[in-house]
Amino acid sequence: MLHLLFRSWRVLGCLLALTLPPISRQEKRGKLLLVSFDGFRWDYINRVPTPNFDAIMKEGVQVERVVNTYITKTLPNHYTLVTGLHAESHGMVANEMFDQHHNRSFSMEGQSAYEPRWWEEAVPLWVTNQRAGGRSGAAMWPGSDVEIHGVYPTHYVPYNASVPFQTRVEKLLSWFSGPEPIDFGVLYWEEPDESGHNLGPESPLLDVVIADIDEKLGFLLEELKRAGLYDDINLIVTSDHGMTQLSSEKIIELDSYVSRDLYTWVDKSPVVGIIPKEGAFDEVYSSLLNANPNLYVYKREDIPEHYHYSHNERIMPILLEAREGWTIVPNKTRKIMLGNHGYNNSLASMHPVFVARGPAFQSGYTKDTMCSVDLYPLMCYILGVRPLPNNGSLASVQDLLLEPPPVTPPPTPTPRVLLGSWPKESSYAWVVELLLGTSLVVFFLFLFVKQVTQKQQLPTLPHINREISKPLLYEELQL
Ligand SMILES: [Zn+2]
């Protein structure tokens, strides 16, 4: 009889444990600063002395090459870093887009960039962090000055390219050290992308720009030390994409193959969206297919699966992709840049840099490669935030961490719990179960007695439900 009673207490204890919120890392939240130097290719740190990148690698970790997401342009990849989603899933599929459903255009550099609807196919990490009780600060990160799902970062600076790097750093660090400190910060800097386009990555003049970025990183490290944040903060320095050299000899002129009257052109080389005019799809497609050996032509539904770039209506019905180093233009009257990105994301030249240091990371550890989608679950783990569904994998990058996440044991099947026997080993676990079970029985007895004695005084159940359901429903809709 006593045995049976204990068995029932064990079951009640398990039931109670199921009703409790899962163990989270909320009480162990780490501070995290994510920095992106736009267009910083993975191997730039090997061409000039970069003592500050070296210092981070020595104290922390390096991933030699990050495989970013297709298309290897600024906006798709910056949104991937903070959502863990490929472009077809987060919806920011290009720097310039056209929504055929709503007949609306988007440009990263125009007012349309402030329309929330473009961003709301996903939820960036600063929003999730704040919903989990954290505080976020953003200095010019793409999309961070847009109200997304009704939320701005706790602190942010409206985008203005003329604000110096030093000012951006000072703002962020003041938020990290303020009376109500942030725990997650994002920082963006436009270089070396701009110089990479203008000079070309092979130009020796770009060495000066890379050395300047390293100095800027040194300023950030010094300021972190001065603010007393250096030992506490987890710092990740990465980028959105690399850069490849272009040539005025490698030009694909679309006017040579198909009349411009038959289609609308969306976004810029090296990946261009084509919307054929009504009834002209077959003519446009067949004119371009096999027109030039350096031009890949895809119907949206035929885009290679490994690009993760077809399941979104913002991807145009025909996609043109240039071979590395080639430029797609209507005709040669257009000025050609010397460097560009956007190409196939398996090309080494498109891959960004990655270094990180801080209490969460290993020391002096180098990893060959990672996918940029894996950064999101890693950052969620450091922040103690439950990740939203994403394309990344924490398991793929957990070797970067000083303490890998505990392996979650598989849940014990219910029948085993019901048939559980008296514990053979000396353990506190069964004592806890016993206490929990006893408490639960007493609690339910108390509730039962209270219900019987006060039933007449309680308001009706439907009224209570309405009161409770409103804020919950509102929260749900925000996602
Ligand atoms: Zn660029």
TrEMBL record:
Keyword hit for Amino-acid biosynthesis: no
Transmembrane regions listed in the UniProt entry: 428-449
InterPro entries per UniProt: Alkaline_phosphatase_core_sf (IPR017850), Phosphodiest/P_Trfase (IPR002591)
Pfam families tied to this protein: Phosphodiest
Annotated signal sequence range: 1-25
Assigned keywords, A-Z: Membrane, Signal, Transmembrane, Transmembrane helix
Keyword hit for Cell membrane: no
Protein name: AP3A hydrolase
Naturally occurring in which organism (per UniProt): Coilia grayii (Gray's grenadier anchovy)
